[in-house]
Every structure is written in C-alpha cells, then in structure tokens.
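Practice set, problem 2.
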Amino acid sequence: MSSKPSLRIGNVSGATGDNPHAMVRMATSGHVDIITGDWLSEMNIAWNAIVKRDFPELGYEAGFLTQLEESIDAIVSNKIKVITNAGALNTVALTEKVRELCDSRGYNNIVVASILGDDVSDFVTSTQGKGTGKLMHLDYEDVFLEDWELEPYCGAAYIGAAGIRKALDEGADIVICGRVTDASPVIGVS
C-alpha cells in the first residue's frame, strides 16, 4: 500500500482547439488537485516559430493564457496546481504573462515556474549546429542535419518530467513548460 496521498488529476486540453472553457469547468467543478494541459503538436511548434519570428514577445499558446485568466480565481481558491506545455517556443514570455496575471489579481504568493531546455532552435539554425553532423534524422540513421536540403527553421527537443517534479518539490503552483513528453505533466506529479 502506498504511503502517498491520492491525487486527482484533470486534463483540460489534448491540443489547441479543444473546449475553450475546459479549465474553468475543471477548476470549479472537477474536484481536482492538479490540472494539466497539452497544447502542443508539431504543427503548433512550427506555427509558434513563425509567430515568434514576427513578434518576439509571442511564440507561446495564447489559448492557455485565455483559459487561465478565466479560471485563476477558482484555481487559487481551490489550491489547484497547474502544469502545461503551452510555453511552446517562448516559455519565458508565457511565464511572465502568468506572473503578471497572478499579480494583477492579487495572487502575489502564487509561485510560477518555467521548465526550459527544449527549444533548440538557435542550435539547429546556426552554422555550428549544421556543422556538427551529430544531429541525425530519427527515421534514417545515415541522414544528418547538415545533409538536409531544407534549412531548419526551429527545433524542439522533448524533455521529460524531472524538471516538473523539481519545480513542484520547490513549491511551484503553476509550471509552464515548452515541449515535454505527453505524459510528463502527469508523471511529474507522481
């Protein structure tokens, strides 16, 4: 028998375009301890790279922020933790927006953490990255990044749950990630 208390985890998103009010519904009537949300796909990452190129302050999933604005009062009053990968290619900017939201509502005690390390865009688009020959195609072991005919525009590496676990252990209430493995938000709380 486990000595850990049970946790109720509710997921509010599997992709961009899911119910735009799922978070507030979960926060007000889901009886959950933790809300997770997966806003990213390969398409979203590419789209966010284009948006970030034109608007460097963006590049994250704005739908998450909209849902959090609608539900932050219930999340705080119900002491619900939130973990998301909505940081996409600008986790730092989204984290700042979330902190601003919390401060504007008087929730200065809410700890917002960022999990970084997934955005490898600078590396794969640089001469240094192309010249290493170490980045191989996942489906073709004999094809390397420097051999590709197309120029890479962005790059994201899947990272795991260790950063999420550490952030929660250190008191984070809201954890903003970029590209983590799909199961990482749930694994990170266990």
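Problem 2, part (b): a different protein.
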Amino acid sequence: MKDNCSASDLEAIVFDDYGVPSIEFLLRILQPGSELHQLARPDYSKANELLNQYGPALVSMFTVHADFEDIHIHRHLGQPVGEKRGIHSMTLIGARNTADNQFFLLQNWWAGKQLVEVDLKYLVRTGAILSFVITPQKSIPSNFASDYFSYHESSLDKQERHAIERRMRIAFQRFN
C-alpha cells in the first residue's frame, strides 16, 4: 500500500481507521486500460457465471452490521442484525446455488474470520458491489510492491493506535 497510496491516505488508514476506496485501489494496481464488469444490488444473478469466467471479484461497499463483527459466526443468512458499523471490502472466491437460494463465499482479512458465507438476501441488504476484472492481467505492474517481508496484519485497537500516534508525534517533534 505504501507504494500505491499518498501520505495522507496512509495516515488516514493507520491512524483514523479510514481506508482508501477499494475499487480505486484495485484500479491503481491493475494494468493500464483494464476493464471491470460490476454487479450491484439486487442484480447478483450472474455472479456465479462471472466467477467461473473471470475468477475472484472485489466485494466493495459491503455495509458491516453488528452481527458480522462476531468472529464466531461465519455464515450470515437473511437480514443483517444490529446497527451499521461501517463499510468493508472482501473478495468473492466462490458461489453456489441451491433450488431456492444463492450463496457466496467471501475471503475476509480479519484474523479468526477469514472465510465467510452469505446468502443472496444478506448480500443484497449490505449494498455491496461486485467487481470482476475482465481484462487479462498478463504481468504484475511495475508499480506493484513486491517486498513480501514488509506485509503484516495489524491487530491494533483504537487505544493502541492512538498511543502509537502520540509516541510518533513526540518522536517527530524531537527529530525536528
């Protein structure tokens, strides 16, 4: 991210728990001229077909409700429960149909809740947008970071982040 985000974007991500719009970030790392096929609610009927044709999709603008934050629940069906907590992005990696419903397997980035299954009604209620990359990506763009050792998962909560932010500001003041 450090190579594909501005300093102000990175500051907002690290200290304010505010992310860059995932679709914008996706477009930054794709090859120039790449095209997307997007599905928005309630038209997810072609998701399974597009998944088979183009591979995984970005799931963006997914409204997280209180029930989704429970790391012990990995299957969400019907109406989301609880207050809205924010917007989230994941990856659609699987889909299946039954006689009376459609289900989607999502790859999440939270420790303890890395795979999630939602049904069609739940996905529709979140207002998510599914973005399939339809242009073949024949190489990794030169601006795509390849330093794998610099990637890690942060489990900082807000108190820890604010404490780190204070220490960094003090250190920065001393440095200047």
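Answer key, part (b): The chain has a mean pLDDT of 82. The chain has one domain: 7-175.
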